[in-house]
Specification:
Layout: H1 2-25, E1 32-33, E2 36-37, E3 47-50, E4 57-61, E5 78-84, E6 87-96, H2 98-112, E7 117-119, E8 124-129, E9 134-141, E10 146-151
């Protein structure tokens, strides 16, 4: 009986240490989207596309004629920034073509580790940091050959 308790105690200590090592090595969540930090007001260079809605949500986009910069060295077709009551909470980038989906999935996995959720059949991957309430979603719409990357 004492040997069982001792083995159980050792197993628990090893488990706790392994858990601490894994969580210490976990990648940090994004601090926002591109250069926009969570909770920041809309940047002066953005153009309001819509809003505010009844719940206080507004969407902004780069001004017409301004080309979106690549994200993780992948060309971006367009992008949008969402604010609630004037505070940034979500940013999305859209990239074209299935090859860019694969590049984006690889780039996000390199930056944030393996996805915490994936459904290959639905072309959906998510990275989540529950303690920070931050997520990154990657979704591919096959019929339009367009990938959406959302940081929220």
């Amino acid at each position: 009986m004492t040997k069982c308790i001792t083995r159980l105690a050792i197993a628990l200590v090893i488990g706790c240490l392994a858990s601490a090592v894994v969580s210490a090595a976990a990648p940090e969540p994004p601090k926002g989207f591109r250069t926009t930090k969570w909770g920041a007001p809309p940047a002066n260079g953005l153009k309001k596309l819509m809003g505010p809605t009844s719940d206080g949500t507004s969407m902004y986009v780069p001004p017409p004629g301004k080309k979106s910069q690549p994200l993780f060295d992948i060309p971006v077709a367009s992008e949008g920034y969402s604010y609630t009551h004037g505070k940034f909470y979500s940013g999305s980038a859209w990239v074209d073509g299935q090859p860019n989906l694969e590049k984006m999935k690889a780039a996000l996995s390199k930056e944030y580790g393996p996805p915490t959720f994936s459904n290959e059949r639905m072309y959906l991957w998510k990275w989540k940091w529950p303690s920070k309430q931050i997520e990154v979603h990657l979704y591919y719409e096959q019929r339009f050959a367009r990938t959406t990357v959302t940081f929220l």
